[in-house]
Specification:
Largest sheet: 7 strands, mixed
Shape: globular
Helix content: 25-40%
Order of helices and strands: EHHEEEHEHEEHHEHHEEEHEHEE
CATH topology of the largest domain: Aminopeptidase
CATH architecture of the largest domain: 3-Layer(aba) Sandwich
Number of domains: 2
Strand content: 25-35%
CATH superfamily of the largest domain: Gcn5-related N-acetyltransferase (GNAT)
Number of helices: 10
Radius of gyration: 20 Å
Distance between the termini: 21 Å
Strand order of the largest sheet: 8-9-10-11-12-7-13
Number of strands: 14
């Protein structure tokens, strides 16, 4: 019988092993993402060493690792039957969705969720901003560079300044009155709290010595880095494009792709992510067993 429990930091080595094996592109297949959002989505991990399987408020995230999928589906059906719920996978990629359709046919119901599609960009595009399509980004970057600015990686000497900036950003953006922003900033703060335990890489920008932006993420798969958080003040024009550009150039060389996660259906965020002209979308599907 499958059993689930709270995710702990010491789950990371085994989780990383299974995640490397499956080599998925979706942002939910990174331990740092799972750990920092665990409280918001009530994430639980299956208590087994055989694969990496998570349960959340919507259902399950398709497992990573070497698995007997038919056996696991039967075990999950038993588990959900006892809870009087249908077996449902959330945020499933197209390949695994099609696998379940091929195995179970009309026994599964498929729903696409555009709000959860991940935005994938090439390292080359984000590190050069070349071409007509990204001309406006270069203009914003140039405006920012008119300031007395500097970039540095996030480390033990400056991470407390990122925490302080996160708190100030939350106050300015009235997180207390916006549940989505409050949830996001909780995940960001948990990421900063366990930044070194989770193996994150980050960067920050200063203007006149004061931190104006920070970002962090982690290794995702054999070809991609995933950016989990990016926060900036908007006093200076081009701060967001600048932190994006500088971080990619300083910390993401060696990766072909950069995953900047989903937009959650937020109009302004969608507009911003589309403006960088993504190379690929990681499609996400909800698969429910009837």
């Amino acid at each position: 019988m499958l059993e689930f429990r709270d995710i702990e930091l010491n789950d990371k080595p085994l989780a990383d092993k299974h995640l490397r094996y499956s080599d998925y592109m979706g942002c939910e297949y990174s331990f740092g993402n799972n750990y920092t959002w665990k409280d918001i989505y009530n994430l639980k991990v299956c208590d087994t060493k055989d694969f990496y399987l998570l349960e959340n408020i919507y259902g399950f995230i398709f497992p990573a690792g070497e698995i007997d999928i038919k056996y696991l589906i039967e075990e999950l059906k038993k588990y959900t039957y006892k809870k009087n719920k249908p077996l449902c996978f959330s945020s499933m990629n197209r390949e695994k969705m099609e696998l379940l359709v091929s195995l179970y046919g009309d026994s599964v119901m498929i729903e696409s969720n555009r709000d959860l599609y991940d935005y994938i960009y090439t390292f080359e595009a984000l590190s050069t901003l070349s071409g007509k399509k990204l001309h406006s980004k270069r203009n914003h970057l140039n405006r920012f560079r008119e300031n007395n600015w500097s970039y540095e990686p996030v480390g033990s000497k400056n991470i407390d300044e990122c925490v302080a900036m996160s708190q100030k950003w939350c106050e300015i953006n009235k997180c207390g009155k916006d549940s989505d922003k409050a949830a996001e900033i909780c995940a960001v703060n948990l990421g900063l709290k366990h930044y070194f335990d989770l193996g994150f890489k980050g960067g920050l920008l200063r203007v006149d010595g004061e931190v104006q932006a920070f970002t962090f993420g982690e290794h995702l798969n054999s070809s991609a880095f995933v950016v989990h958080a990016e926060k900036a003040f908007t006093e200076f024009q081009g701060t967001y494009p600048a932190i994006n550009y500088e971080f990619v150039n300083h910390e993401c060389s060696g990766y072909k792709y950069i995953n900047r996660e989903e937009d959650m259906g937020e109009p302004n965020l969608r507009k911003a992510k589309l403006s960088y002209k993504p190379e690929i979308f990681v499609e996400k599907y909800k698969v429910t067993f009837k």
